[in-house]
Amino acid sequence: MEIWKTNIGWLSCLLLVLCQQTTKGATHWVVTEDGKIHTQDDSVFTLRRPYDLVSLLEQEKRAEALKRIKTQLMAQKETIEASAGADSEAAHGTIVIDSETDVEQVVYSTNDDCTNAGKTLPEFDLYVGTMLFLPPVTPALVSKKFNDFNDSDDERLISDERLRTEDFEQPNCSQFYNLDFSMHSYEHLQSMRDRKNLEIEPESDIHLTITSVEDIDSYGNGVYQALKQNNTSWVLYTMASYYWRAKGNGYEAVECLRRALHCAPYNYKHIPLASLGNVLHRAHHTEEAAIVMHHAIDVSSENPISHFTLGNIYAVLADYNKSLICYENVLKLDKSFTEAKLRYHAVLCHQKVEKALRAQHEYTLEELQGYQKQQELWLHYQQKLLSEQAPPGVLLEQRLQYREHKIREIIDSNLNNGGHNMASGGGNVGATMKKMNHGTVNGSGGGSGNHNAEINHGSKTGSSPSPTCSAANGGNNGGNGESDCHMVPILIPITFVPPS
């Protein structure tokens, strides 16, 4: 019976080893909601530093926080979806605006400022060009009153005869006056330092404000001829800037205005400053254009054109309160300034539209902002959780080590059981061998010869061991025929290599 027990033990060991190839080991388990225990191969507690107790405790806190934030996010999502179809009351009047109603159309059709403006604020040209040279317009390129701005009253700026030449020249201001740097030309502004990159749209009709000459090339040639005779006239340099604004050349316009600002007396600097503010504004350097226009107003605050230009600039910058102040200043100086009045109402209308939109979506916006913050917090904890978790390669190595450890435990357990059985059988074998030795020493030679003959006979004939044991015992015990021997189990060690 002992040999069968031993063989069954080894067979069980072999079956368990084979079964390990189709099963997987796990070091972490989780209890499901229905009370069942399942393995968790991708557990967040499989750390890259499993020996670090502090990391394990912190990982547990992060896992709990992650679970809590996820629950909050789900609740917030349901709340946002539920409130998406709710009605909200507009901040103006008592108009109730449904979520699917066009808020802008409701305000535009009911608000007085929107009606007075006639169109929305984006429909106004907020980049419209302005200039400070105003009518009356004379047949000459420049009226006589501008002669007062020059150092010499005897010098005539431009005559009609100069306009009749066939070869048109352009007033390139750099060739008349070399000016590398000037404290008066706002060199500290970034747009002025990068003036070669300025791009503006052409203002084709700007020169018609100060002249009856319709052809822009004739206008430019007249300014050129005048600069040849007087290259320090700030008036001519300012007029040359209008020519380049009409052509859409921002760099040449700024070069002319730098020389105009350098040569102009302080009391008249607001004229080239207004032109410079227009160039920078149309080149989309609007913030720096606001600086220049504020300086123009500081020089002369009684000119409505400067306030009007600054109002357009602040409207582009979406600083609507300052824009309203500028338009109000225009209307104080000139109540008949229609464009300023229309834009004033348009800005008020635009403010009320924005206020109505905020009132409609204020609650939803706050909820979305809170949801976004919670989502960012969730991502932070998730990244930290994954950073402390063991990478896939380490996880696979840990699983293989665990499986190898369990297999070795099973093999060692079966080896120990087999050794115990062998020791039990070994005592009987020892007694038998003792009897056999006793018979060999003390028995007759014939008995010993019979014993050896029986063993040899059993080996040659292939008979079972039982008769051999009986013959051997019979030789020793006087042929009583009783069997007193045990089979000796032969243990063959098996080395198992776990699959990779």
UniProtKB/TrEMBL annotation:
TM ranges: none
Keyword DNA-binding on entry: no
Keyword ATP-binding: no
Record-linked InterPro entries: TPR-like_helical_dom_sf, TPR_rpt, TTC17
SUPFAM superfamilies in the record: TPR-like
GO CC term, one of those recorded: cytoplasm
First and last residues of every TPR repeat: 304-337
Stretches for region Disordered: 438-476
UniProt GO BP: actin filament polymerization
Bias type Polar residues, positions: 458-471
Record's signal peptide: 1-25
Keywords, sorted A to Z: Signal, TPR repeat
Protein name according to UniProt: Tetratricopeptide repeat protein 17-like protein
Source organism: Dinothrombium tinctorium
